[in-house]
Amino acid sequence: MNNAARWLAILLIAAAPAVLAQNKILRLTFQAGETGFDPVRVHDYYSGHVLEAVFDTLLTYDYLARPAKLVPSAAEMPEISADGKTYTFRIKKGIYFTDDAAFKGKKRELTAQDFAYSIRRFFDPKNRSPYAFLFTGKIVGLDEFNARAKGGGKFDHDSPVAGLQTPDRHTLVIKLKQADRDLPYILAFPVTSAVAREVIEAYGDEAASHPVGTGPFYLKRYVRSSKIVLAKNPDYRGKTWDFEPGDNPRFKRIAERMQGKRLPAIDGVEISIMEETQSRWLAFQRGETDYEYALWDVSPNFMTDDGKLKPEFVRRGIQLDRTVDPEIIYLYFNMLDKVGDTPNPFSGFSNERIALRRAIAMSYNIEDQIRIIRKGQAVRAQYPIPPGIVGHDPQYVSSIPHDPRAANALLDRYGYKKGPDGYRRQPNGDALILRYYSTPTERDRQFDELFKRGLDAIGIRLEIVKDRFPEMLKLEKQCRTMVRHAAWIADWPDGDNFMQLLYGPNTYESNNACYKSPEYDKRYAKSRTLPAGPERDRLYHEMTRIMEMDTVWFLTDSRIRNTLQHPHVVGFTKHPVLHAAWLYLYLDPKPRY
To answer: Which of 189, 42, 214, 220 is nearest to 114 (CA)?
Structure first.
Protein backbone atom coordinates (compact mmCIF):
# COMPACT_ATOMS: atom_id res chain seq x y z
CA MET A 1 0.00 0.00 0.00
CA ASN A 2 1.48 3.37 -0.98
CA ASN A 3 1.56 6.30 1.44
CA ALA A 4 -1.43 8.07 -0.13
CA ALA A 5 -3.61 4.96 0.15
CA ARG A 6 -2.42 4.37 3.73
CA TRP A 7 -3.34 7.91 4.78
CA LEU A 8 -6.74 7.61 3.05
CA ALA A 9 -7.46 4.37 4.95
CA ILE A 10 -6.49 6.01 8.25
CA LEU A 11 -8.76 8.98 7.57
CA LEU A 12 -11.70 6.73 6.66
CA ILE A 13 -11.27 4.66 9.81
CA ALA A 14 -11.04 7.79 11.96
CA ALA A 15 -14.14 9.28 10.35
CA ALA A 16 -16.29 6.16 10.60
CA PRO A 17 -17.21 6.40 14.30
CA ALA A 18 -18.28 10.02 13.86
CA VAL A 19 -20.51 9.08 10.97
CA LEU A 20 -22.06 6.23 12.91
CA ALA A 21 -22.56 8.38 15.99
CA GLN A 22 -24.28 10.98 13.88
CA ASN A 23 -26.84 8.36 12.90
CA LYS A 24 -27.96 8.01 16.53
CA ILE A 25 -29.40 11.54 16.53
CA LEU A 26 -33.05 11.49 15.46
CA ARG A 27 -33.88 14.54 13.34
CA LEU A 28 -37.45 15.74 12.84
CA THR A 29 -39.62 18.85 12.63
CA PHE A 30 -42.52 20.53 14.40
CA GLN A 31 -44.94 22.41 12.15
CA ALA A 32 -45.55 25.10 14.81
CA GLY A 33 -43.61 26.69 17.63
CA GLU A 34 -43.70 25.33 21.18
CA THR A 35 -45.16 27.25 24.16
CA GLY A 36 -42.58 26.09 26.70
CA PHE A 37 -41.72 23.10 28.87
CA ASP A 38 -43.25 23.75 32.28
CA PRO A 39 -45.78 20.90 32.50
CA VAL A 40 -48.62 22.79 34.20
CA ARG A 41 -48.38 25.70 31.75
CA VAL A 42 -48.16 23.75 28.50
CA HIS A 43 -51.22 23.89 26.26
CA ASP A 44 -49.99 22.75 22.86
CA TYR A 45 -49.36 19.41 21.21
CA TYR A 46 -45.74 20.08 20.24
CA SER A 47 -44.46 21.05 23.70
CA GLY A 48 -46.11 17.86 24.97
CA HIS A 49 -43.61 15.81 22.95
CA VAL A 50 -40.74 17.37 24.87
CA LEU A 51 -42.45 16.94 28.24
CA GLU A 52 -42.84 13.24 27.48
CA ALA A 53 -39.11 12.96 26.71
CA VAL A 54 -37.73 15.01 29.63
CA PHE A 55 -40.07 14.18 32.52
CA ASP A 56 -41.69 11.16 34.15
CA THR A 57 -45.34 10.50 34.85
CA LEU A 58 -46.62 8.01 37.41
CA LEU A 59 -47.97 5.75 34.66
CA THR A 60 -47.51 5.42 30.91
CA TYR A 61 -48.73 3.21 28.04
CA ASP A 62 -47.66 -0.09 26.55
CA TYR A 63 -46.13 0.93 23.22
CA LEU A 64 -47.83 -1.77 21.11
CA ALA A 65 -51.03 -2.64 23.00
CA ARG A 66 -54.23 -1.78 21.11
CA PRO A 67 -56.51 -0.53 22.53
CA ALA A 68 -54.23 1.63 24.65
CA LYS A 69 -53.15 -0.05 27.90
CA LEU A 70 -51.68 1.63 31.00
CA VAL A 71 -48.44 0.29 32.48
CA PRO A 72 -46.10 1.43 35.29
CA SER A 73 -43.70 4.31 34.76
CA ALA A 74 -42.24 6.17 37.76
CA ALA A 75 -44.64 4.22 39.99
CA GLU A 76 -46.05 0.74 40.08
CA MET A 77 -49.70 0.29 39.16
CA PRO A 78 -51.82 1.83 41.93
CA GLU A 79 -53.65 0.10 44.72
CA ILE A 80 -57.30 1.24 44.48
CA SER A 81 -59.74 1.12 47.38
CA ALA A 82 -62.98 -0.81 47.06
CA ASP A 83 -65.01 2.41 46.71
CA GLY A 84 -62.67 3.74 43.99
CA LYS A 85 -61.89 6.89 45.97
CA THR A 86 -58.37 6.21 47.21
CA TYR A 87 -55.35 5.56 44.99
CA THR A 88 -52.02 4.53 46.50
CA PHE A 89 -48.93 4.81 44.30
CA ARG A 90 -45.55 3.31 45.18
CA ILE A 91 -42.84 5.44 43.57
CA LYS A 92 -39.92 3.39 42.29
CA LYS A 93 -36.69 3.94 44.20
CA GLY A 94 -33.46 5.04 42.58
CA ILE A 95 -34.94 7.45 39.98
CA TYR A 96 -32.91 10.67 39.82
CA PHE A 97 -33.31 14.10 38.28
CA THR A 98 -30.64 15.16 35.81
CA ASP A 99 -27.90 17.21 37.42
CA ASP A 100 -28.66 20.91 37.74
CA ALA A 101 -27.28 23.89 39.68
CA ALA A 102 -30.60 24.11 41.53
CA PHE A 103 -29.61 20.93 43.41
CA LYS A 104 -26.32 22.49 44.61
CA GLY A 105 -24.15 19.55 43.67
CA LYS A 106 -26.31 16.89 45.33
CA LYS A 107 -27.82 13.90 43.59
CA ARG A 108 -31.60 14.43 43.74
CA GLU A 109 -33.94 11.43 43.94
CA LEU A 110 -37.53 11.57 42.67
CA THR A 111 -39.99 11.27 45.57
CA ALA A 112 -43.73 11.12 46.18
CA GLN A 113 -43.58 14.72 47.40
CA ASP A 114 -42.50 15.81 43.90
CA PHE A 115 -45.73 14.45 42.44
CA ALA A 116 -47.83 16.01 45.22
CA TYR A 117 -46.11 19.37 44.64
CA SER A 118 -46.61 19.09 40.87
CA ILE A 119 -50.35 18.46 41.27
CA ARG A 120 -50.72 21.44 43.62
CA ARG A 121 -49.06 23.68 41.03
CA PHE A 122 -52.10 23.36 38.75
CA PHE A 123 -53.96 25.57 41.23
CA ASP A 124 -51.31 28.20 41.85
CA PRO A 125 -52.95 31.34 40.33
CA LYS A 126 -49.64 32.61 38.96
CA ASN A 127 -49.36 29.52 36.73
CA ARG A 128 -52.76 30.07 35.03
CA SER A 129 -52.73 26.42 34.10
CA PRO A 130 -54.92 25.57 31.08
CA TYR A 131 -55.23 22.04 32.47
CA ALA A 132 -56.40 22.82 36.03
CA PHE A 133 -59.70 21.18 35.04
CA LEU A 134 -57.95 17.80 35.26
CA PHE A 135 -58.15 18.00 39.05
CA THR A 136 -60.88 20.57 39.71
CA GLY A 137 -63.59 19.17 41.98
CA LYS A 138 -61.84 15.83 42.35
CA ILE A 139 -59.21 15.70 45.12
CA VAL A 140 -60.32 16.15 48.73
CA GLY A 141 -59.27 19.57 50.04
CA LEU A 142 -57.59 20.77 46.82
CA ASP A 143 -60.42 23.07 45.69
CA GLU A 144 -60.52 24.73 49.10
CA PHE A 145 -56.75 25.16 48.91
CA ASN A 146 -57.27 26.83 45.52
CA ALA A 147 -60.11 29.06 46.77
CA ARG A 148 -57.91 30.45 49.58
CA ALA A 149 -55.23 31.39 47.07
CA LYS A 150 -57.73 33.04 44.70
CA GLY A 151 -59.19 34.95 47.66
CA GLY A 152 -55.91 36.73 48.14
CA GLY A 153 -54.31 34.27 50.52
CA LYS A 154 -50.79 33.04 49.99
CA PHE A 155 -50.45 29.90 47.89
CA ASP A 156 -48.56 27.84 50.44
CA HIS A 157 -47.21 24.59 49.06
CA ASP A 158 -46.44 23.43 52.58
CA SER A 159 -50.03 23.61 53.80
CA PRO A 160 -51.60 20.14 54.11
CA VAL A 161 -54.16 18.94 51.56
CA ALA A 162 -56.23 16.05 52.88
CA GLY A 163 -56.43 14.36 49.48
CA LEU A 164 -52.68 14.51 48.73
CA GLN A 165 -50.72 12.52 51.27
CA THR A 166 -47.11 11.36 51.29
CA PRO A 167 -46.75 9.00 54.27
CA ASP A 168 -43.16 8.26 53.24
CA ARG A 169 -40.69 9.30 50.54
CA HIS A 170 -41.95 6.77 48.03
CA THR A 171 -45.69 6.57 48.71
CA LEU A 172 -48.30 8.93 47.26
CA VAL A 173 -51.92 8.62 48.40
CA ILE A 174 -54.62 10.47 46.43
CA LYS A 175 -58.07 10.69 48.02
CA LEU A 176 -60.98 11.61 45.74
CA LYS A 177 -64.37 13.15 46.48
CA GLN A 178 -65.94 10.53 44.24
CA ALA A 179 -64.67 7.64 42.17
CA ASP A 180 -62.98 8.76 38.95
CA ARG A 181 -62.20 6.05 36.41
CA ASP A 182 -60.12 8.46 34.33
CA LEU A 183 -57.62 9.33 37.09
CA PRO A 184 -55.03 6.70 36.04
CA TYR A 185 -55.18 8.03 32.46
CA ILE A 186 -54.77 11.60 33.70
CA LEU A 187 -51.70 10.57 35.67
CA ALA A 188 -50.16 9.17 32.47
CA PHE A 189 -50.65 12.52 30.71
CA PRO A 190 -47.33 14.46 30.36
CA VAL A 191 -48.67 17.67 31.93
CA THR A 192 -48.94 15.75 35.23
CA SER A 193 -45.23 14.92 35.18
CA ALA A 194 -43.14 15.45 38.31
CA VAL A 195 -41.00 18.57 38.62
CA ALA A 196 -38.56 19.42 41.42
CA ARG A 197 -39.58 22.33 43.63
CA GLU A 198 -35.96 23.51 43.81
CA VAL A 199 -35.85 23.94 40.03
CA ILE A 200 -39.14 25.86 39.83
CA GLU A 201 -38.10 28.19 42.64
CA ALA A 202 -34.59 28.67 41.23
CA TYR A 203 -35.70 29.64 37.72
CA GLY A 204 -39.12 31.20 38.36
CA ASP A 205 -40.77 32.33 35.13
CA GLU A 206 -37.82 30.93 33.17
CA ALA A 207 -38.57 27.38 34.34
CA ALA A 208 -40.50 26.85 31.09
CA SER A 209 -37.20 27.26 29.22
CA HIS A 210 -35.20 25.21 31.70
CA PRO A 211 -36.91 21.84 32.21
CA VAL A 212 -35.17 19.45 34.58
CA GLY A 213 -36.67 16.00 34.79
CA THR A 214 -36.03 12.29 35.31
CA GLY A 215 -36.96 11.15 31.80
CA PRO A 216 -34.90 9.47 29.07
CA PHE A 217 -33.66 12.76 27.58
CA TYR A 218 -32.63 16.21 28.79
CA LEU A 219 -32.78 19.60 27.08
CA LYS A 220 -29.30 20.28 25.68
CA ARG A 221 -29.96 23.37 23.55
CA TYR A 222 -33.01 25.53 22.97
CA VAL A 223 -33.67 28.42 20.60
CA ARG A 224 -37.28 29.50 21.08
CA SER A 225 -39.56 28.63 18.14
CA SER A 226 -36.53 27.56 16.10
CA LYS A 227 -34.48 24.64 17.46
CA ILE A 228 -34.86 22.11 20.29
CA VAL A 229 -32.01 19.68 20.94
CA LEU A 230 -32.39 16.79 23.39
CA ALA A 231 -29.62 14.45 24.52
CA LYS A 232 -29.84 11.03 26.13
CA ASN A 233 -29.97 11.28 29.90
CA PRO A 234 -26.84 9.43 31.12
CA ASP A 235 -28.45 8.83 34.53
CA TYR A 236 -31.73 7.48 33.18
CA ARG A 237 -32.76 4.24 34.86
CA GLY A 238 -33.29 2.69 31.43
CA LYS A 239 -35.89 0.30 30.11
CA THR A 240 -35.74 -2.83 28.00
CA TRP A 241 -37.83 -3.03 24.81
CA ASP A 242 -40.25 -5.82 25.71
CA PHE A 243 -43.69 -5.45 24.15
CA GLU A 244 -46.07 -8.07 22.79
CA PRO A 245 -46.85 -7.48 19.09
CA GLY A 246 -50.02 -9.58 19.01
CA ASP A 247 -51.20 -10.54 15.52
CA ASN A 248 -50.28 -7.22 13.87
CA PRO A 249 -47.74 -7.99 11.09
CA ARG A 250 -46.10 -4.56 11.32
CA PHE A 251 -45.77 -4.86 15.10
CA LYS A 252 -44.23 -8.32 14.67
CA ARG A 253 -41.57 -6.87 12.35
CA ILE A 254 -40.86 -4.13 14.87
CA ALA A 255 -40.56 -6.66 17.70
CA GLU A 256 -38.11 -8.79 15.71
CA ARG A 257 -35.75 -5.80 15.41
CA MET A 258 -36.28 -4.18 18.80
CA GLN A 259 -36.82 -6.99 21.32
CA GLY A 260 -34.33 -6.79 24.19
CA LYS A 261 -32.76 -3.45 23.23
CA ARG A 262 -31.87 -1.12 26.09
CA LEU A 263 -33.86 2.12 25.91
CA PRO A 264 -33.35 4.81 24.88
CA ALA A 265 -31.45 3.32 21.97
CA ILE A 266 -30.69 6.69 20.36
CA ASP A 267 -28.35 9.40 21.59
CA GLY A 268 -30.62 12.37 21.13
CA VAL A 269 -33.32 14.21 19.22
CA GLU A 270 -32.93 17.36 17.14
CA ILE A 271 -36.14 19.26 16.38
CA SER A 272 -36.40 22.11 13.87
CA ILE A 273 -39.46 24.34 13.74
CA MET A 274 -40.63 24.48 10.10
CA GLU A 275 -44.05 26.02 9.62
CA GLU A 276 -44.29 25.53 5.84
CA THR A 277 -45.15 22.11 4.46
CA GLN A 278 -42.93 22.51 1.42
CA SER A 279 -39.89 23.14 3.63
CA ARG A 280 -40.59 20.01 5.68
CA TRP A 281 -41.11 17.93 2.54
CA LEU A 282 -37.83 19.10 1.00
CA ALA A 283 -35.97 18.47 4.26
CA PHE A 284 -37.23 14.89 4.31
CA GLN A 285 -36.41 14.39 0.64
CA ARG A 286 -32.85 15.57 1.22
CA GLY A 287 -32.42 13.24 4.19
CA GLU A 288 -32.16 16.12 6.65
CA THR A 289 -34.97 14.63 8.75
CA ASP A 290 -35.55 10.99 9.63
CA TYR A 291 -39.34 10.95 9.63
CA GLU A 292 -42.12 13.37 8.79
CA TYR A 293 -45.88 13.23 9.15
CA ALA A 294 -47.39 16.69 8.63
CA LEU A 295 -47.44 16.44 4.83
CA TRP A 296 -51.14 16.37 3.92
CA ASP A 297 -50.70 19.27 1.49
CA VAL A 298 -48.12 17.40 -0.63
CA SER A 299 -49.35 13.81 -0.17
CA PRO A 300 -49.99 13.33 -3.95
CA ASN A 301 -46.21 13.58 -4.38
CA PHE A 302 -45.61 10.32 -2.52
CA MET A 303 -48.95 8.49 -2.32
CA THR A 304 -51.25 6.81 -4.80
CA ASP A 305 -55.00 7.44 -4.75
CA ASP A 306 -55.55 4.24 -2.74
CA GLY A 307 -53.21 5.33 0.09
CA LYS A 308 -50.10 3.39 -0.92
CA LEU A 309 -46.56 4.65 -1.36
CA LYS A 310 -45.59 5.37 -4.96
CA PRO A 311 -43.15 2.81 -6.42
CA GLU A 312 -40.17 5.19 -6.48
CA PHE A 313 -40.42 5.63 -2.69
CA VAL A 314 -40.84 1.91 -2.13
CA ARG A 315 -37.64 1.32 -4.12
CA ARG A 316 -35.81 3.75 -1.82
CA GLY A 317 -36.96 1.78 1.23
CA ILE A 318 -39.13 4.59 2.56
CA GLN A 319 -41.61 3.31 5.16
CA LEU A 320 -45.19 4.49 5.66
CA ASP A 321 -47.20 4.32 8.90
CA ARG A 322 -50.82 5.31 8.24
CA THR A 323 -53.45 5.99 10.93
CA VAL A 324 -56.42 8.29 11.53
CA ASP A 325 -55.49 10.64 14.35
CA PRO A 326 -57.75 10.42 17.43
CA GLU A 327 -58.57 14.11 17.05
CA ILE A 328 -61.23 16.56 16.02
CA ILE A 329 -60.79 19.75 14.02
CA TYR A 330 -63.50 22.29 14.69
CA LEU A 331 -64.32 25.93 14.12
CA TYR A 332 -65.55 27.72 17.22
CA PHE A 333 -67.34 30.99 17.94
CA ASN A 334 -66.34 32.95 21.03
CA MET A 335 -69.45 33.20 23.20
CA LEU A 336 -68.40 36.17 25.35
CA ASP A 337 -70.17 39.47 24.69
CA LYS A 338 -66.83 41.19 24.10
CA VAL A 339 -63.61 39.95 22.52
CA GLY A 340 -61.07 42.15 24.24
CA ASP A 341 -62.66 45.60 23.99
CA THR A 342 -64.62 44.78 20.84
CA PRO A 343 -68.36 43.97 21.05
CA ASN A 344 -68.94 40.45 19.74
CA PRO A 345 -71.86 40.25 17.27
CA PHE A 346 -71.62 36.44 17.12
CA SER A 347 -72.17 35.64 20.81
CA GLY A 348 -75.38 35.07 22.75
CA PHE A 349 -78.40 32.78 22.64
CA SER A 350 -81.05 34.96 21.00
CA ASN A 351 -82.69 33.46 17.92
CA GLU A 352 -80.96 35.91 15.57
CA ARG A 353 -77.47 35.20 17.00
CA ILE A 354 -77.97 31.43 16.81
CA ALA A 355 -79.27 31.85 13.23
CA LEU A 356 -76.18 33.87 12.33
CA ARG A 357 -73.77 31.25 13.63
CA ARG A 358 -75.74 28.44 12.01
CA ALA A 359 -75.75 30.22 8.65
CA ILE A 360 -71.98 30.61 8.81
CA ALA A 361 -71.59 26.92 9.62
CA MET A 362 -73.89 26.02 6.72
CA SER A 363 -71.82 28.14 4.33
CA TYR A 364 -68.56 26.29 5.04
CA ASN A 365 -67.73 23.47 2.63
CA ILE A 366 -66.08 20.74 4.69
CA GLU A 367 -65.80 18.40 1.71
CA ASP A 368 -63.70 21.04 -0.08
CA GLN A 369 -61.48 21.28 3.00
CA ILE A 370 -60.84 17.53 2.85
CA ARG A 371 -60.50 17.37 -0.95
CA ILE A 372 -58.50 20.55 -1.64
CA ILE A 373 -56.56 21.38 1.51
CA ARG A 374 -56.09 17.91 2.97
CA LYS A 375 -55.69 16.28 -0.47
CA GLY A 376 -58.10 13.58 0.68
CA GLN A 377 -56.01 12.75 3.75
CA ALA A 378 -58.75 13.26 6.34
CA VAL A 379 -62.15 11.86 7.28
CA ARG A 380 -65.27 13.88 7.97
CA ALA A 381 -65.89 14.50 11.68
CA GLN A 382 -69.56 14.11 12.59
CA TYR A 383 -69.30 13.53 16.32
CA PRO A 384 -67.20 15.31 19.02
CA ILE A 385 -65.56 12.03 20.02
CA PRO A 386 -63.28 10.72 17.24
CA PRO A 387 -62.75 7.12 16.06
CA GLY A 388 -60.64 4.99 18.37
CA ILE A 389 -61.83 6.77 21.51
CA VAL A 390 -64.30 5.20 23.96
CA GLY A 391 -67.71 6.81 23.35
CA HIS A 392 -67.32 7.39 19.60
CA ASP A 393 -70.52 6.82 17.62
CA PRO A 394 -69.79 5.95 13.96
CA GLN A 395 -73.53 6.19 13.10
CA TYR A 396 -74.01 9.77 14.29
CA VAL A 397 -74.69 12.44 11.62
CA SER A 398 -74.39 16.15 12.30
CA SER A 399 -77.57 18.23 12.07
CA ILE A 400 -75.66 21.07 10.35
CA PRO A 401 -75.62 20.58 6.54
CA HIS A 402 -73.63 22.45 3.92
CA ASP A 403 -76.38 24.57 2.34
CA PRO A 404 -75.51 28.18 1.36
CA ARG A 405 -78.98 28.78 -0.11
CA ALA A 406 -80.71 27.86 3.16
CA ALA A 407 -78.07 29.89 5.04
CA ASN A 408 -78.97 33.02 3.02
CA ALA A 409 -82.67 32.46 3.66
CA LEU A 410 -82.00 32.11 7.39
CA LEU A 411 -80.10 35.41 7.50
CA ASP A 412 -82.83 37.19 5.54
CA ARG A 413 -85.47 35.87 7.92
CA TYR A 414 -83.65 37.18 11.01
CA GLY A 415 -82.99 40.68 9.70
CA TYR A 416 -79.38 40.51 8.50
CA LYS A 417 -79.95 42.69 5.42
CA LYS A 418 -77.41 43.33 2.69
CA GLY A 419 -76.16 46.86 2.14
CA PRO A 420 -75.14 48.51 -1.17
CA ASP A 421 -71.70 46.88 -0.89
CA GLY A 422 -73.28 43.40 -0.90
CA TYR A 423 -72.37 42.65 2.72
CA ARG A 424 -74.89 42.12 5.46
CA ARG A 425 -75.37 44.32 8.50
CA GLN A 426 -76.65 43.46 11.95
CA PRO A 427 -80.43 43.71 12.53
CA ASN A 428 -79.87 47.06 14.32
CA GLY A 429 -77.98 48.43 11.29
CA ASP A 430 -74.46 48.15 12.76
CA ALA A 431 -71.62 46.74 10.68
CA LEU A 432 -71.15 42.97 10.78
CA ILE A 433 -67.51 41.88 10.59
CA LEU A 434 -66.23 38.41 11.42
CA ARG A 435 -62.64 38.39 12.73
CA TYR A 436 -61.02 35.06 11.99
CA TYR A 437 -57.66 34.17 13.54
CA SER A 438 -55.02 32.14 11.70
CA THR A 439 -51.27 31.78 11.37
CA PRO A 440 -49.14 33.35 8.57
CA THR A 441 -48.48 30.05 6.79
CA GLU A 442 -49.33 28.80 3.32
CA ARG A 443 -51.50 26.09 4.86
CA ASP A 444 -53.61 28.59 6.80
CA ARG A 445 -53.86 30.85 3.76
CA GLN A 446 -55.81 28.03 2.11
CA PHE A 447 -58.17 27.89 5.10
CA ASP A 448 -58.58 31.68 4.90
CA GLU A 449 -59.59 31.43 1.24
CA LEU A 450 -62.02 28.57 1.81
CA PHE A 451 -63.69 30.35 4.72
CA LYS A 452 -63.91 33.60 2.76
CA ARG A 453 -65.49 31.83 -0.19
CA GLY A 454 -68.24 30.50 2.04
CA LEU A 455 -68.81 33.83 3.77
CA ASP A 456 -68.90 35.74 0.47
CA ALA A 457 -71.67 33.38 -0.64
CA ILE A 458 -73.84 34.56 2.27
CA GLY A 459 -72.70 38.20 2.31
CA ILE A 460 -70.65 38.33 5.53
CA ARG A 461 -67.50 40.44 5.62
CA LEU A 462 -64.36 38.64 6.80
CA GLU A 463 -61.37 40.23 8.52
CA ILE A 464 -58.37 37.94 8.98
CA VAL A 465 -56.10 38.42 11.99
CA LYS A 466 -52.65 36.87 11.66
CA ASP A 467 -50.36 35.82 14.49
CA ARG A 468 -47.87 33.08 15.26
CA PHE A 469 -49.15 29.84 16.75
CA PRO A 470 -47.86 30.26 20.35
CA GLU A 471 -49.22 33.82 20.56
CA MET A 472 -52.56 32.66 19.10
CA LEU A 473 -52.87 30.07 21.84
CA LYS A 474 -52.23 32.67 24.53
CA LEU A 475 -55.03 34.85 23.15
CA GLU A 476 -57.29 31.83 22.91
CA LYS A 477 -56.83 30.93 26.59
CA GLN A 478 -57.81 34.52 27.46
CA CYS A 479 -61.01 34.25 25.35
CA ARG A 480 -59.67 36.94 23.02
CA THR A 481 -60.11 35.19 19.66
CA MET A 482 -63.49 35.72 17.97
CA VAL A 483 -63.54 32.79 15.53
CA ARG A 484 -60.82 30.22 14.89
CA HIS A 485 -60.16 26.69 13.70
CA ALA A 486 -58.80 24.56 16.54
CA ALA A 487 -57.68 20.96 16.98
CA TRP A 488 -57.87 18.60 19.94
CA ILE A 489 -56.05 15.28 19.95
CA ALA A 490 -56.67 12.67 22.64
CA ASP A 491 -54.91 13.23 25.95
CA TRP A 492 -56.36 9.93 27.13
CA PRO A 493 -58.52 7.39 25.28
CA ASP A 494 -61.94 8.26 26.70
CA GLY A 495 -64.77 10.46 25.41
CA ASP A 496 -64.72 12.60 28.55
CA ASN A 497 -61.50 14.16 27.27
CA PHE A 498 -63.48 15.59 24.34
CA MET A 499 -66.85 16.36 25.91
CA GLN A 500 -65.18 18.51 28.59
CA LEU A 501 -64.13 20.95 25.85
CA LEU A 502 -67.54 22.68 26.08
CA TYR A 503 -68.02 22.49 29.85
CA GLY A 504 -68.62 26.01 31.20
CA PRO A 505 -66.20 25.87 34.17
CA ASN A 506 -63.39 24.98 31.76
CA THR A 507 -63.53 28.45 30.20
CA TYR A 508 -60.03 30.00 30.08
CA GLU A 509 -58.62 26.47 30.09
CA SER A 510 -59.76 23.95 27.45
CA ASN A 511 -63.12 25.56 26.54
CA ASN A 512 -61.92 27.75 23.66
CA ALA A 513 -65.44 28.89 22.78
CA CYS A 514 -65.89 30.22 26.35
CA TYR A 515 -69.30 28.54 26.17
CA LYS A 516 -71.58 28.33 29.19
CA SER A 517 -74.79 26.37 28.74
CA PRO A 518 -76.67 25.24 31.87
CA GLU A 519 -78.24 22.36 29.92
CA TYR A 520 -74.92 21.16 28.55
CA ASP A 521 -73.15 21.59 31.90
CA LYS A 522 -75.84 19.69 33.81
CA ARG A 523 -75.52 16.70 31.49
CA TYR A 524 -71.74 16.81 31.51
CA ALA A 525 -71.64 16.79 35.32
CA LYS A 526 -73.94 13.77 35.29
CA SER A 527 -71.81 11.98 32.68
CA ARG A 528 -68.77 12.30 34.95
CA THR A 529 -70.44 9.98 37.47
CA LEU A 530 -71.16 7.23 34.93
CA PRO A 531 -69.04 4.45 33.46
CA ALA A 532 -68.71 4.15 29.69
CA GLY A 533 -71.92 2.61 28.40
CA PRO A 534 -75.41 3.31 27.03
CA GLU A 535 -76.47 5.79 29.73
CA ARG A 536 -73.37 7.92 29.31
CA ASP A 537 -73.62 7.64 25.50
CA ARG A 538 -77.21 8.96 25.68
CA LEU A 539 -76.02 12.01 27.60
CA TYR A 540 -73.20 12.55 25.09
CA HIS A 541 -75.75 12.51 22.25
CA GLU A 542 -77.92 15.07 24.03
CA MET A 543 -74.91 17.29 24.73
CA THR A 544 -73.88 17.12 21.07
CA ARG A 545 -77.33 18.18 19.90
CA ILE A 546 -77.33 21.07 22.39
CA MET A 547 -73.97 22.21 20.98
CA GLU A 548 -75.32 21.94 17.44
CA MET A 549 -78.53 23.80 18.28
CA ASP A 550 -76.52 26.64 19.78
CA THR A 551 -73.99 26.27 16.93
CA VAL A 552 -71.09 27.20 19.13
CA TRP A 553 -68.87 24.82 17.14
CA PHE A 554 -68.98 23.05 13.87
CA LEU A 555 -66.85 19.97 13.36
CA THR A 556 -64.82 19.56 10.19
CA ASP A 557 -62.47 16.56 10.04
CA SER A 558 -59.92 14.20 11.60
CA ARG A 559 -56.63 13.97 9.74
CA ILE A 560 -55.01 10.83 8.39
CA ARG A 561 -51.45 10.72 9.68
CA ASN A 562 -49.10 9.45 6.97
CA THR A 563 -45.74 9.15 8.70
CA LEU A 564 -42.87 8.71 6.25
CA GLN A 565 -39.65 7.20 7.61
CA HIS A 566 -36.28 6.67 6.02
CA PRO A 567 -35.06 3.04 5.88
CA HIS A 568 -32.68 3.42 8.83
CA VAL A 569 -35.52 4.29 11.25
CA VAL A 570 -36.44 1.17 13.24
CA GLY A 571 -39.38 0.68 15.59
CA PHE A 572 -41.74 3.50 14.64
CA THR A 573 -45.49 3.26 14.97
CA LYS A 574 -47.92 5.98 16.02
CA HIS A 575 -49.37 5.24 19.43
CA PRO A 576 -53.01 6.38 19.86
CA VAL A 577 -52.16 8.50 22.94
CA LEU A 578 -48.40 8.89 23.43
CA HIS A 579 -47.10 12.03 21.76
CA ALA A 580 -43.74 10.72 20.59
CA ALA A 581 -42.13 7.38 19.83
CA TRP A 582 -38.56 8.60 20.46
CA LEU A 583 -37.93 6.41 23.50
CA TYR A 584 -38.84 3.29 21.51
CA LEU A 585 -36.80 3.88 18.34
CA TYR A 586 -33.46 2.74 17.00
CA LEU A 587 -31.45 4.13 14.08
CA ASP A 588 -29.53 1.70 11.92
CA PRO A 589 -25.88 2.80 11.61
CA LYS A 590 -26.05 3.92 8.01
CA PRO A 591 -23.82 6.86 7.06
CA ARG A 592 -25.45 9.97 5.58
CA TYR A 593 -23.92 11.88 2.72
So the answer is: 214
